[in-house]
Amino acid sequence: MDTSSLFSAKQTPFMIYSNQSQTNHISSTIRSSDLSDPFATGGKWASRLLRECAKAISDKEHTKIQHLLWMLNELASPYGDCDQKLASHFLQALFCKANESGNRCYKTLISVAEKNNSFDSARKVILMFQEVSPWTTFGHVASNGLILEALEGQTKLHIIDISNTFCTQWPTLLESLATRNDETPRLKLTVVVSVATEKAVMKEIGQRMEKFARLMGVPFEFHVVNGLSRLWDLTKEELGVTDDEAIAINCVGALRRVIVEERGAVVRMLSGLKPKIVTIVEEEADFTSLREDFVKCFEECLRFYTLFFEMLEESFELTSHEKLMLERESSRSIVRVLGCDGDVGFDECESREKGNQWSEKMKESFTPIAYSDDVLDDVKALLKRYRAGWSMIPAQGDDNGLYLRWKEEPVVWASAWKP
Amino acid sequence: MSIHDDTSSSAMTGDPITTTKKKRSLPGNPDPDAEVIALSPTTLMATNRFVCEICNKGFQRDQNLQLHRRGHNLPWKLRQRSGKEVRKRVYICPELGCIHHQPNRALGDLTGIKKHFSRKHGEKKWKCEKCGKKYAVQSDWKAHLKTCGTKEYRCDCGTLFARKDSFITHRAFCDALAEESSRVVQMVPSLISAEEQQPKLQIVVAANDSPTPTSPPTPIIISAQIQIQGQELPAKNTGISSCLNGSSSMSSSNGNGTSMFANLFSSSSTMAGELQRQQQQQQQQQHTSFADLINAMARSERSMTNVEPISLCLSSSNGSSLQYAAPFQPALSATALLQKAAEMSAATTNASLLRGLGVSLSSNTSSGQQQHQQENVHWNRLMESEGSGGIGELIMGGGSSSMFGSKPTTLDFLGLGMGVGGGSGAAKGGFSALLNSIGDRLDVAAGTWGDGNYSEQRKS
């Protein structure tokens, strides 16, 4: 699309998708005649507009930026269809980028989120998400299966959980431990969280875990360590690691929050704990290697969140509150990735990397553990329970791990490692 | 018989019973005169117990062999079984670390030990295509196939789940679980009612001959084996009730002690017709909570009678189960969940149900002492799962359930709220045993309770 057509569309944003956009017309009549057009011709108007805008920002074309932001603002809605939602959330990020207000905006969003963050709401969102989509449960099943295999026969287990899953991964593992053939082992669960999470919800979660373990008859200890923002710095003592324990480290959606420069140090720290197994689950996107190139990073971010939003749209009920919460969370991430200057003021980031990138890092201290047929079967059985569109595929070639795919696109990567 | 031919087998005869009396709840409690057979894993799995002497075909069950023998058209005389009694044989598990490897825990049934060996130590090669669950024993797998996908899991909060893992996760995080710890007493009936597989509960209530008006109402004994004759017991009663009152955290509001029992047995299945009359009597004697019990039983009887054997109590696929989840049994599904867990690995679960619930129970099973005078000892007696049972039988497992180490088991019933793994280290698997045992057999007899002394006469 050339610039002239864009500017001629000033009165009516819709015109830019219309073949008659060069004709002179009264905006109102065009509006009525072309209203359905951009939507009818395959939708995706949001990504086209957003791309234009990102490019304009990168090129510092201020007029065009203003214009596109205005259009996006007219069209976007966080409560609309998928395009409108994408437009809304990316608009916020682009606006921040354009005005260099990202850090402030992000801080505001975070503090609002923290204020509203309660055990109740987090629980609802997470559990509902698990019900309707394997996005998170895929990683749970894949990791739990291998953790159980790696710790088989051990009597003192210590799971160090560095995750964003609020312990929702563990009840099924506790149940499996309770129904294991041999003697039920002792389980120590150490959860590494951020300050905000700790304050908001960990007490409730700890109590529930303890109760549930008691109910299941698994001797259980629960600890919370506040250290997500300095993961590379954590010591054995802080984590309560002792020599007679069999250790499993579970990282779900956590490594991407470690600032990029310290990721190697985190891997070394994990290796220093001498775990029997490290499980890693991350969303399959690369906001890291491209972060210097705004447009490319934007493209990747848009690609990933388009998938995510479409997935949410198809998985949840139309008016689901939980879906809205997940979208808001995504919105914050998008602002963090695109709107903020990477290294200013935050201990944590959203710099996702893809499975092969994590694999490279892990391979410096670890070797991959292959998924057993049993675990693969479990994952397959899991995916069958959800709507069509989900599949899994083991990594090919030099790549390691297992991918969850949504409509043939890999979206989540799971892997397991040993020293 | 081929089983003797195995080189690795060592036929040994021992007196496996070292203590004077063994709990019936221990599986594998063989006849002391039985011949203990140890088979290698291969031989064990290849062995059929019942072999046709004509064609050498092996059968797992005697009845099958008998049916088979008819096909050989033998003369009548030969059809009779040979007169000489084969010495009874018991079998131990080949797995060295296994509890059933010990001769005194051998199983009397070859099929039983085979299944045990497969389940506990074997490869799970039978897999359900629907849910991925794996089984070592084909018959277990077949049984699962019949029910897979038909279950629904209902949480106390009302949410229904088709999948077990979602249910488990939800269960752990649901407020209903958080509330349960304060409802210990209600949990117990739930557990009982959760076991629908063999609704063989029988409640017999025998009236106390002369209850004094001032004394607490007649408490109830549950017995797995005997029906208690009320008149055999001393007339007064304080035992349980005072004991109950003494343990405040267990039953906070019941002034007379029996309401707990009302709860406890509110889900029993059948009721003697006599019960109604008893009810009248009891009510006249201002035993209101007893009446509650009976009402509760009456209520639950309805919901109990035509329950699908396989469903967890939270199943909503049949109407009766829904009744089951009725408000007076709020904790049902939690326990069903636990039941599920217990079914699979009862033997190894290290915390008793009651401890899991924040209640502990005391049972001094190995002591032959009958001279308990103190109130809490009544519980011990009650809990004792020896012979005539009592609640202990209920809790610790009926005849063929497992779960208790060969060592004497001590559970502190009054040590309420004890932490897992704390203190009573010997307490093992009560929970699992309960669930298993109820399934195995559970006759509940309610009778009168003596004053102070628990009367051994009940064993008559």
UniProtKB/TrEMBL annotation, chain A:
Keyword Metal-binding: no
Residues making up the signal peptide according to the UniProt record: none
Segments of this protein annotated with the region SAW: 339-418
Pfam families given in the database record: GRAS (PF03514)
Keywords: Transcription, Transcription regulation
PROSITE patterns membership: GRAS
Motif (VHIID): 157-161
UniProt keyword annotation of ATP-binding present: no
Region (VHIID) location: 126-191
Top-rank taxon, per record: Eukaryota
UniProt feature coiled coil, ranges: none
Protein family: Belongs to the GRAS family.
Protein name as it appears in the record: Protein SHORT-ROOT-like
Organism from which the protein derives: Kingdonia uniflora
Phylogenetic placement of the source organism: Eukaryota, Viridiplantae, Streptophyta, Embryophyta, Tracheophyta
UniProtKB/TrEMBL annotation, chain B:
Chain intervals with Polar residues compositional bias: 8-19
InterPro entries xrefs: C2CH-3rd_BIRD-IDD, C2CH-4th_BIRD-IDD, C2H2-2nd_BIRD-IDD, IDD1-16, Znf_C2H2_sf, Znf_C2H2_type
Name by which UniProt lists this protein: C2H2-type domain-containing protein
Domain named C2H2-type: residues: 50-72
SMART domains in the record: ZnF_C2H2
Domain of life: Eukaryota
GO molecular function: DNA-binding transcription factor activity; zinc ion binding
Listed GO CC annotations: nucleus
Taxonomic source organism: Kingdonia uniflora
Stretches of the chain forming a coiled coil according to its record: none
Transmembrane segments: none
Pfam families: C2CH-3rd_BIRD-IDD (PF22995), C2CH-4th_BIRD-IDD (PF22992), C2H2-2nd_BIRD-IDD (PF22996), zf-met (PF12874)
Keywords in alphabetical order: Metal-binding, Repeat, Transcription, Transcription regulation, Zinc, Zinc-finger
Residue numbers spanned by region Disordered: 1-33
